[in-house]
Amino acid sequence: MRVHYSYGAGFASSVPCLFLYPQLALWARRRPPASLAMSQKAHGQSTSVVFLNLPIVMRLPDALQSAIQKEVERIDRARLAQAAAQLTERYQAGQFSSPVIHTEAQRAAYLAVRVPAIFSANLHVFSEIRRLAPDVNISGVLDLGSGPGTALHAAAQVFPSIQHATLVESDAALINVSKRLGTAVPDVRWLQQDIRSGVPAELHDLVVISYTLGELSQAGAEKLVMQAWAAARQFLVVIEPGTVRGFGFIHAARALLIGAGAHLLAPCPHPLQCPMAAAGDWCHFAQRVERTSLHRQLKDGALGYEDEKFSYVVGSREEFPTPGARIVRHPQKLSGHVKLLLCTAHGLERRTITKSQKERYREARRVEWGDGWNEPPA
Question: How confident is the model at residue 90 (pLDDT cuts 50, 70, 90)?
Answer without folding.
Answer: confident
